[in-house]
Design goal:
Blueprint: H1 2-6, H2 15-25, E1 29-31, E2 38-40, H3 42-61, E3 65-66, E4 72-74, H4 75-78, H5 82-88, E5 93-97, E6 100-102, E7 109-111, E8 116-123, H6 128-138, E9 147-156, E10 170-180, H7 183-203, E11 210-213, E12 225-232, E13 238-248, H8 250-254, E14 258-260, E15 266-268, E16 270-277, H9 279-288, E17 305-309, H10 314-333, E18 338-340, H11 348-357, E19 362-366, H12 368-373, E20 375-380, E21 386-390, H13 394-419, E22 421-423, H14 427-434, E23 439-443, H15 448-458, E24 461-466, E25 474-475, E26 482-483, E27 486-490
Parallel strand pairs: 3-9, 17-18, 17-19, 22-23
Antiparallel strand pairs: 1-2, 4-8, 5-8, 6-7, 9-10, 10-16, 11-12, 11-24, 12-13, 13-16, 14-15, 19-20, 20-21, 23-27, 24-27, 25-26
Helix pairs in contact: 3-7
Length: about 500
Amino acid sequence: MAKELKELTSREENYSQWYNDLVVKADLAENSAVRGCMVIKPYGYAIWEKMQRQLDDMFKETGHVNAYFPLFIPKSFLSKEADHVEGFAKECAVVTHYRLKNDPNGSGVVVDPEAKLEEELIVRPTSETIIWSTYKNWIQSYRDLPILCNQWANVVRWEMRTRLFLRTAEFLWQEGHTAHATEAEALEEARKMLDVYAEFAENYMALPVVKGVKSANERFAGAVETFCIEAMMQDGKALQAGTSHFLGQNFAKAFDVQFVNQENKLDYVWATSWGVSTRLIGALIMAHSDNNGLVLPPKLAPFQVVVIPIYKNAEQLELISEKVKALMAELKTLGISVKYDDSDNKKPGWKFAEYELKGVPVRLAMGARDMENNTVEVMRRDTLGKETISFDGIAQHIKQLLVDIQKNIYTKALNFRTSVTREVNSYDEFKAELEKGGFLSAHWDGTPETEERIKVETKATIRCIPLDGDETPGVCIVTGKPSVRRVLFARSY
């Protein structure tokens, strides 16, 4: 294990390679036999399950229910909403046939030319079209509204330049799709779900985020408005951590979803969609981890405490195990997940390194001397600080320690973001500061042309127009034209 850690590229040397090394060596995921796709390994999937469980509870607390819609979407459906098809056309995987047959030449199997589909099917890149074709059958009156559905699913967006968790051809996510009787209700829903995402990011991922609105160039294809949360990674690049879209009546009109409103008149339904994906695991890694491995916030760690016995013989192990058994029961009563690693095929030092690499928030070590003194060694992963304390009351100590670790990880990330967020007032200053990374708050004249020019010349994009940002008027850093407020720029993933 020491050798494994030695081979972990440092963040300072090569941040991108550090990230890739860490994902693989911490047993989170690996590349699959299918180009552009990944295998999420049990430890990585356990993190996703913790995220999924918490988000699912939050969705249900706000009145949403889960459903499931087909993986395949008729090609004609994507043609119905012009902006939507333009936004996703280049990323679609297409099913053209429904059968294989043995190759007459004896070379395995081939596509049966007689099994060509009358209409090709798209493997869903997102589900607005298939869901709105379904909602047409569900909605006739205002009494049928609102519909507040979410689905946990996989999607495919054909990516060739991929990175584990951050950008893969297939990924896991949730997508909410809601239908409303009024514009105001749909807008309220889109903002509400943005707040849910922000609360999850900050209170569970320990990840400070900026809530904002996307510019027209960065808006979701088919949306009237896209709200987002933007996070800052340790290399100074931004990462979009979640989006919530106000779709207006675009998809209702595309699929002719009308209802009789309270004035007994026909109207088109108002819509939202919102989603987060396994990209959040990438954000978790890049925002908190260090050269020793993962640093996981306790609320999302697969297990929050690991106990490692240090013994010379079976008798010592039995005594330690008996004492630890009672502690584990008490921790579980407090809602704390714990693993006891008494495996005899790895030395304690190897185990210490392994759980440090995997980011377990708290490590307890207990040996013969600890048994004599009624003590235990406690190490916290976020600071690598160690202390030897009395075994009496250790469970309550750990409970508070986990709270402290969660808070400290968030505070550290917030302080870093604050340190790399700067105001700039000229294009030359913008370009110079951009090389240092971070968020740049700058005036922009509001035109897509200026935004595109900045993107082409600097590779920076408008991450968002902050909802609570500086609304003082000024002049655009590029054109000198009037600007109504500052926006946040950054290079991003």
